[in-house]
Amino acid sequence: MVPFPTTPNTRYLSNDAGYLLIKSIDREDWSTVLHLSGPVFYFFGFTLLIPVLIALGMQEWNSLFDFFITALLFILLGQILKKVFKPKHDAMWLHGMGVAAFSWLVVMLLGALPYYLSGHFLSFLDCCLDTMSGMTTTGLILIQDVDHLAVSMNIWRHMLTFIGGQGIVIIALSFIPVLGIGFKAMVGEGKEERMVPNVRDTGRAIWMISLIYLAVGTLLFFIIGLFAGLKPGWSLFHGVTLFMSTWSTGGFAPQSQNVIYYHNFPIEIVCALIAIIGSMNFGLHYYIWFKQKKELIKDIETKSLMITMTLTLMIVVFGLIKQGLYPNFLSLVRKSIFLLVSGHTTTGTMNIYTIQFINLWGPLALLGLIIAMAFGGSSASTAGGFKGLRIGIAVRGIFADIKKIFTPTGSVVVEKYNHIEEGVLSDKLVRGAISIILLYIVIYAGGAVLGMMHGYPVMSALFESVSAGSNSGLSCGITMPGMPWDMKVYYILAMWLGRLEFTAIIVFFTMIVRSVIQKRHISR
After folding, report:
1. For 378, phi and psi rounded to 5 degrees?
2. Higher pLDDT pick, 400 / 244
């Protein structure tokens, strides 16, 4: 047999048919992933000092201890990984993806510790689901007695959605001088837009945008809260937490009744507006601020979202009219638009009770919300779902194929689209968009089938599965502490896959599988 040419990044694995030239996974690869993950955990540990200080100020001694212990564990783990494991070569795409997937998994497991110690959960698995739900900005919850939760714990829940929305690796890229994974890890977290050439500065630009909106949004909620009768301290608390939740499309709220607690129309309006802005592409934000404001109406993603939001709203409104649930036009508009925006931006804030979904909204209105959640918000944003960019590219790809049929033989059809800048619609781009959409459909369908196997109605099982996989967080009542354990595990996996958009996690598990296979080959 003629030998294949070798490179430093390839190995030969033999089988009965001959030799396969593939990228092997060795100790150096894992050392690189673990070493580069260390600073992420190290920095994340320091973010936990914020609830420590809040707990100290509020004299919440139990929470202070819980957060302090967790912070020390993160910092210790980060230091150990950074010092013990040393990469032998430069980081590749493989390592950037591995860091993204591995970091999110470990943050979920360690981040669940203060939840577990708080006594507000029935099991550690419930804590993991809530932690993953916060990190992925989903908003499905299993926490008990939110109304009596420590202030520091409540703020941390919302900080987790805020941090997760920007990306936990992007935080490290923004503040730690050298990680060596740059754009590779950003893509692994679903943030593929470079606003500026330097990846570190791109991360900081994302945080600059978020912090400016944080100041403005919190001020709006604070003023509304004062007029609603809240004391200044509590108005600030509700303002900060509500903004973090809606901006990051997280769906959490400081009270168990969610937005219903306020019975305040201005709060609902601000929530909806911030959710829409938060679900927009960070690159588009940057471009509108500093370069070209007209890009907002020219961008294919903006057009796609406007069309899908209008179509799904029509389905929801028609379904509600058919049910005769809201005879008052203002009530119909208020409930339908708010929940449609909440679902389509994958925010998950609710201004009606869960039981109303189940018993009153009817199948057509629920179907409209399911489609809206499945579509989701923008790429490179805090939102989940298919993303408007992929929908726009897939539809334009279909029309391009139709156009080619009516084009004379030999003619070249060049289809262009506008997203931040003008680009050419290639077959590879269209296939990539459709492939990711199909993967989302698979996890939506898988969760629905699992729910039906446990006896839940078809529409409810599909609704909850799409909500988890698209990181939406709207619930029709399935996500509860008493739900089957395998559904909890599936929802955790679906939220993780949906938030990181599959590639990083597939690469991570492929690394594990290949390592096992190679070890067996060597042992033979």
Report:
1. -95, 160
2. 244
